[in-house]
Give the backbone structure.
Amino acid sequence: MFEAKMLQSSVLKKIIESLKDLFSDANFDCSSSGITLQDMDSSHVALCYLKLRSDEEGFEDYRCDRNITLGVNLVLMSKILKCAGNDDVITLRAEDEPNILTFIFDSKNGERVSKYDIKLMEIDSELLGIPDTEYSCVVKMPSHEFQRICSNLSQLGDSVTVDCHKEGVDFKVAGEQGSGAIKLKQNTTVDKEEDQVSVELNEAVTQSFALKFLCAFTKATSLSDTVSLSLTQDTPIVVEYPIAQHGYLRFYLAPKIEEEN
């Protein structure tokens, strides 16, 4: 038996909304330590990794008697989750040999209980080993600021160059009709930690990435006040959104390779 009771359905709603446009089907791998999801987009350029730890405060109850995999259509799951109020307590339930995933929504006042079942899918997916990497640069900033940068620069071009150096980090775009640049300087003196910009630099890094994917990643902005960008030359960027009382959601995006003339 698998059963996970989350105190707020809004967290799961935001997770699925941030994933469903890039990753339509996904396997939730459930174990005693928590729930993980790893999926790659159809073009094999972007990868996501979700970790929800069973020992965190976000679960009121968590039970997983044996490791199981729940293959779910994320678009359908999104539709089901929209039937829940943001403050509803949500319970996910499945048997040890699952073909059905059950959603139970309990209203805060206890006056309404809703139950929905969806059929599970068999999804072929290969779990990739994600190596632990010492990154040359880690930028932490307000998530809404990163969302605004990606949105603004996408008006002028398809790819953004991220340039990390000792003064801060530059985001640059150059398109056929114009160019743009946004410079962020380190700022750790503001009172609220979520408003700070910090740059941990071991080595300067300059890489280009497709804005289409970065803009898609920023759909996770509502999950967290902050986002971190981890970069090393010639390796994928890691865009991480911490999920309070649960874990984190990470996106990996391969850099664009400049063609030599």
User: Anything to note?
Assistant: Helices lie at 9-19, 74-81, 143-153, 211-217.
